[in-house]
Write a structure and sequence with these properties.
Layout lengths: L1 H8 L2 H21 L7 H23 L8 H10 L7 H19 L4 H22 L3 H16 L2 H4 L2 H6 L2 H29 L11
Helix pairs in contact: 2-3, 2-7, 3-5, 4-5, 5-6, 6-7
């Protein structure tokens, strides 16, 4: 219970920065230990796909979005992954998938604000990586961490508190319905028990 409540109240901006540091470390380690039978670009694309999947799951958890809602963008990215001829051939669809997951699924809201937020984050992040021209494990790790630092700005443009509340109304409504159904079931069981005892129901007895 405490862990779930902590996840809901953690700032998505801080979570993005911390996740970016972890993802950068994973990229550095993976490229340093890349097997000889696999191209470095293939390894990097696979690690980036894994990092995006983990970050999408984090966004879904914080916004109370069902994981199954992420199936469509990841099915498309899974189809792109094996045919991507280079890292740049995968990161552009991956950034588009991130925008779809973040603004289209986990954080619905005014279209104009979402377009501005994605242009300032996904677009600027890709532009920064292109300008850095990373090479080697350290270069790609730095580039990925800078990319996530820019992604954190998304939650400056989009209200972070609203993002954390985005999936709660549905969950709260479902909980209210379940509570009401359980109350009606208990009341029905009480009425049956009183009927077996040949007593009047408490609902109908006012005296």
């Amino acid at each position: 219970m405490w862990r779930g409540q902590a996840m809901k109240t953690t700032s998505p901006l801080i979570s993005t920065v911390v996740f970016g540091a972890g993802a950068a470390s994973l990229v550095a380690a993976s490229l340093s230990l890349a097997p000889v039978f696999m191209a470095r670009s293939t390894m990097l694309n696979a690690v980036l796909f894994f990092c995006l999947a983990a970050y999408a799951a984090l966004l879904a958890r914080m916004s109370a979005t069902p994981i199954r809602a992420l199936a469509a963008p990841f099915l498309l990215l899974a189809a792109v992954l094996p045919v991507a001829a280079s890292v740049s051939g995968f990161v552009v669809p991956a950034a588009a998938g991130l925008a779809w997951i973040r603004s289209g699924i986990c954080c619905p809201g005014p279209a104009a604000r979402r377009v501005v937020a994605e242009a300032l984050t996904a677009g600027a992040g890709l532009a920064l990586c292109a300008a850095l021209r990373p090479s080697g494990a350290a270069g790609w790790a730095l580039g990925l961490w800078m990319f996530f630092l820019i992604q954190a700005l998304y939650f400056v443009v989009i209200d972070a508190a609203g993002f954390l509340r985005s999936g709660r109304p549905c969950a709260d409504a479902g909980q209210a319905l379940r509570s009401r159904a359980q109350a009606l079931l208990r009341e029905h069981k009480l009425e049956r028990a009183f009927a077996k005892l040949d007593l009047s129901s408490p609902r109908g007895s006012d005296t």
